[in-house]
Specification:
Helices cover 6% and strands 46% of the residues. The chain is mostly beta strands. The chain has a six-stranded mixed beta sheet, with no helix packed on it. Strands 1-3-8-7 form a four-stranded antiparallel beta sheet, with no helix packed on it. It is globular, with a radius of gyration of 13 Å.
Length: 121
């Protein structure tokens, strides 16, 4: 069974940090991009960050650039999103996927349950 499981979310005050993890089971991440996405209350899902299969290329949404760092450990079949200087507007359910864009994940109906990040004022 193919699964990506997000973890590491929680409640943090403004300015705090969290590290999210994305663990693959049933397949290897070695050949895949890893993307992070989020959906805030009342908002559409948005792209947050993406990393290429070998880690050589990374991309960040302007809203998180300089605060978030994406990484991966292929030996552990895991992706990470380090989130620093968190703001209330970062509050959302965060999802990972083996793509950098929303559309292919939608097409495969491949979204998991996500992990909730709540940043208090």
């Amino acid at each position: 069974q193919l699964q990506l499981v997000e973890s590491g979310g929680g409640l943090v005050q403004s300015g705090g940090s969290l590290r999210l993890s994305c663990v693959a089971s049933g397949f290897t991440l070695r050949f895949s991009d890893i993307g992070w996405f989020r959906q805030a209350p009342g908002k559409e899902r948005e792209e947050v960050s993406c990393i290429s299969s070998n880690g050589g290329r990374t991309d960040y949404a302007d809203s998180v650039k300089g605060r978030f760092t994406i990484s991966r450990d292929n030996a552990k079949n895991t992706g990470y999103l380090q989130m620093n200087s968190l703001k209330p507007e970062d509050t959302a359910v965060y999802y990972c996927a083996t793509a950098c864009k929303i559309e292919p994940v939608d097409a495969l109906n491949a979204w998991g349950q996500g992990t909730l990040v709540t940043v208090s004022s």
